[in-house]
Write a structure and sequence with these properties.
- By secondary structure, this protein is mostly beta strands.
- Helices cover about 0% and strands about 55% of the residues.
- The protein is built from no helices and eleven strands.
- The strands form three sheets. A four-stranded antiparallel beta sheet has the order 1-2-3-4, with no helix packed on it.
- The radius of gyration is 15 Å and the shape is globular.
């Protein structure tokens, strides 16, 4: 089983969020990749998986690459599931994770401002989308 962290973010309470992907063997010859978000409440000494999605298709590559938290405490993660780019959210960083948007570009950057707005940047002609 392999795993990789592709993005890290923190919320206003000091919790850390790691976005990435992991592989787990489905059969002797098949490996499925799944998207994982892990959270640390103790400064990175330990982590708990708070969101984990396995692709629905066969052979889909799934990963999370970016994470950010808004001033209201909402945590966002961007990535790809079965070739579809997405943005997911956990309300207040404690709620269930929901898909906010199927993003029309591959996400390359994410940021939040003091007003609670989230900005997602991608590789489609310098695309920036505000949430």
């Amino acid at each position: 089983m392999g795993a990789g962290a592709y993005g890290i973010g923190a919320d206003g309470l000091g919790n850390l969020y790691i976005a990435g992907g992991a592989n787990k063997a489905a059969t002797r010859k098949t490996v499925l990749s799944h998207r994982v978000v892990r959270k640390s409440t103790d400064g990175g000494a330990s982590f708990t998986t708070v969101d984990d999605i396995t692709p629905t298709g066969t052979g889909g590559i799934t990963y999370a690459t970016l994470s950010a938290a808004t001033s209201s405490g909402d945590v966002y993660v961007a990535g790809s599931i079965d070739g579809q780019n997405f943005l997911r959210k956990s309300a207040g960083g404690t709620g269930a994770w929901t898909t906010v948007d199927a993003v029309p570009f591959q996400s390359r950057s994410i940021a939040a401002n003091a007003s609670g707005n989230l900005f997602l940047g991608g590789n489609a002609e310098f695309m920036v989308k505000k949430y």
